[in-house]
Amino acid sequence: ELIAEIHKVSSPSPEDPDNYNEQCEEGSKVMLAEMLIERLPDLPGARLGRGWAGLYPVTADHRPYVGPVDQSEPGLITAAGAGGYGIQLAPVIGLIVADWVLKGSPASIPGTESLAPTPERNVPGTHTAAA
Who contacts 20 (Cβ-Cβ below 8 Å, separation ≥6)? Predict the structure, then answer.
């Protein structure tokens, strides 16, 4: 059994995680099948099986949230929204979280204060690129 995937963003606005379409769109299946046939033309007995659609955990500005959720609770730290890069970013995100918990700011990596979640960062289309 060959398991393949394709990432596709089909919604310009955030989805409701409690109510979203979990069905794989027909166009996505066709696109994936065409890519597989191109790359594996001699795959014997190949056929499309089942499909699934899920949510991709990214923030509006496509940078992870790392920092205090609310200034009134500085010990409540979040590390979320890294999308497909979370596993690669885990060591540095862990360091930033440890700094927030132990030092009250991300002292080890200057400039990462901008990763703290804010209402402004959560509005699609209103963000600017940051270092």
Answer: 53, 55
